[in-house]
Structure formats: structure tokens, C-alpha cells
Design goal:
Helix content is about 35%, strand content about 25%. It is α+β, with helices and mostly antiparallel strands. It is globular.
Amino acid sequence: MDSRLMRQTLETRLAKDDRLITYDREKDQLRIESKSSGKGISIALPGVIAKWQVEKEKAIDEIVYYVEEGLQAMENTVDLHDQFKQIFPVIRSASFPVEAEEGVPFLTEEHTAETKIYYAIDMGNTYRLIDTRMMKKEGWSANTIKEMALFNVRSLSTSVKEDQVAGNIFYFLNTNDGYDASRILNKGFLNEMEKRITGTMVLAVPHQDVLIIADIRNDRGYDVIAQMAMSFFASGRVPITALSFLYEDGELEPIFILGKNK
């Protein structure tokens, strides 16, 4: 699968009368825009091709789904007053764009050296990141949105699955509601998990749909969490970071684990 064939495949799947599809040869990007609003989504073809090499048609189905949902979300009118219960924080990598394509800044907050917090309105099958233009229109302050988002994330379920590897215990939170990684902001939940930990508490948010909490009891455990984080990071739809974090005194500290060959 090369760029030309991938471009043709996506153009066929995404073509509609009310859309404009253009190709940037220099960037090897395909852009799908709504003719009425001028808003759109750009797709970097090399990334899709790399994923296709592993997942085949599933990779194409996923990108088509997210483009369709994303364009629909852009067309929907958002009223923060009616949707305050649907506002949640989302974790993204520190390199994630800080503004929309129109140059409007997103509402963000520093988290760690590897991660940043964004805020989104849940719209069912997708969500929309909150930007300053949206806030100004509704007259909402950043503090109000952040407080509501943290309150709402604490209401999400925190059931975990447990696994043991080489004498270490790993807990996985994976509900696929789009906010699994966001649970890392639920300090009450983390403190409760800390009470269950007898070794060193290490966390990982390799992509948005998983939170890994590890009870590291020996050196082998560090190798295992590093391998897990890298594997999840490589397969996630919205990758965040392959690094892990020490959790001590309510604070997160990124750690680099040099894996050893078996």
C-alpha cells in the first residue's frame, strides 16, 4: 500500500457532495473539508499506511470513522450551559497541538513533562475539544470548566482488571469510553490504589483508552511495565506516551526505564 493507493481508497470512502477533498503532495496529507463551514480534518497518509501494514482494513475503517465523527462534531452547535455534565478532561502528549487549525487556542493545563490536559465536551460517539472561542461565546471561565471536568471524571467507574507477572501485580483500567487515561486525574482513586500497593507504584497512560497501575516488587517489574507501555503506545488510536510515571506523595514523576534483553 503506497500513498497513491491509500489516497484513492480514502477519497472513495469519504467523498460526499457537500465535501471538498484536497491533497497536499509536499506534506503527503489528505484534507477533507465541509463546503458550508470550511472546517475540516487533515490526514497524514504515512501514519495511516504504517498502521495498515499491521491492521490492514481495520486501520482504514478506524480513520474513516474518526473523520466522519469529527466532521459531524464540527458542524454541531455546542452549548456549554446544557452540557456541563458532559465536560471531561482528556490527556494528550505534550507535543499535541495547542490550537485548532483556525488558530484558536484550546483550553489546556500543564500536567507532566510528557503530558498535557485538554478539556472536551462528550457528544456521544465523539467529543469536541473546548477552545477559547467557545468559552467566550458562552461566557464560561477556565476555572469553571476545569472544576466541572474534574468533578465529572471522578464520577466515572474505576473498576480494574488484575494480572500478575514475575511477582509483580498490574492493574488495567480499560472501559473504552474515551476517558480511561483521564482517570489518572482522579486523585481519590489513585490514593485508594496506593493503599493496595506493597511495592513501588508506577502508572502508565500509553494511549487514551487505558490506564495501567503497577505494583512493582522487583527489578523485573520495571522491564515488564516498560514493555507493556511501549506495546500499548504503538497500538493505540490516540497515543499519549510510552514513558511511565512514579506516583509518590500524590505527585507524578516521569521515569525512563532501560529495558533489558531476555
